[in-house]
């Protein structure tokens, strides 16, 4: 049965990549959460999808050009949530020690090649003793290989380009799993991976028809903005079975 991952937390209803979204996701009973990591000027790991703070906060500029102190002053854009801030990865990992969620950490180092990001993130996970509950993922294939050298945690290769063979991608990078855009995956490609011991997880599955289709097909992981909906559809499918 497919495992449900809350994409940037329960981001369909709450501000993405915030502690609120992660806590709300936990309450849905989902298997895990997915989050994104960028690095600040003073080498702090912040949980935010974009390279800049422009879209999701009241601030402007690149994460890489700002310090922890500067970033912590920004508020998440949400009319009724004036106190929500960009969380540090440390804050999320500390919170994760008190639940059983699997944490999918996506390193956003494909556009900006943050020097030493892999080592830093792996060290933080080890600090909180969460190695067995973390999946690392990245679009940066060089980074996939580096992570495989640094950690025993699961490492997934991300891709979104049509024509890519996911099994060959996993084999060429040493990735343990494949995380792909739903638009570039077929059931045959998924089965090829699974038959060779490579689990497949797809993003971002939000429509009931798509979620039901892939759960029925035997997808390993549904990455969705609506974990509560996905869990309900999963349970409905289990009852029918």
From TrEMBL:
GO terms for molecular function: phosphoric diester hydrolase activity. Residues 2-234 form the GP-PDE domain. PANTHER family: GLYCEROPHOSPHODIESTER PHOSPHODIESTERASE, CYTOPLASMIC, GLYCEROPHOSPHORYL DIESTER PHOSPHODIESTERASE. GO terms for biological process: lipid metabolic process. This is Glycerophosphodiester phosphodiesterase. It comes from the Bacteria. CDD domains: GDPD_TtGDE_like. Pfam families: GDPD (PF03009). SUPFAM superfamilies: PLC-like phosphodiesterases. InterPro entries: GP_PDE_dom, PLC-like_Pdiesterase_TIM-brl.
């Amino acid at each position: 049965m497919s495992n449900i991952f809350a994409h940037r937390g329960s981001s369909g209803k709450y501000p993405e990549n915030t502690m609120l979204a992660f806590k709300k996701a936990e309450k849905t009973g989902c298997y895990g959460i997915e989050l994104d990591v960028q690095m600040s000027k003073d080498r702090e790991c912040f949980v935010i999808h974009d390279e800049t703070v422009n879209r999701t906060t009241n601030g402007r500029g690149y994460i890489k050009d700002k310090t922890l102190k500067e970033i912590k002053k920004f508020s998440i854009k949400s009319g009724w949530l004036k106190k929500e801030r960009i969380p540090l990865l440390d804050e999320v990992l500390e919170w994760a020690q008190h639940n059983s969620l699997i944490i999918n950490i996506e390193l956003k180092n494909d556009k900006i090649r943050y020097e030493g990001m892999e080592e830093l993130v792996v060290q933080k996970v080890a600090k909180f003793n969460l190695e067995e509950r973390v999946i690392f993922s990245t679009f940066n294939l060089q980074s996939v290989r580096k992570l495989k050298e640094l950690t025993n945690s699961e490492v997934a290769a991300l891709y979104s380009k049509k024509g890519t063979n996911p099994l060959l991608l996993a084999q060429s990078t040493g990735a343990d799993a494949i995380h792909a855009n739903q638009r570039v995956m077929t059931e045959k490609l998924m089965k090829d991976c699974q038959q060779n011991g490579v689990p497949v997880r797809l993003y971002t599955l939000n429509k009931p028809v798509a979620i039901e289709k892939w759960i029925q097909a035997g997808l390993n992981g549904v990455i969705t903005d609506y974990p509560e909906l996905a869990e309900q559809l999963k349970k409905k499918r289990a009852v029918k079975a």
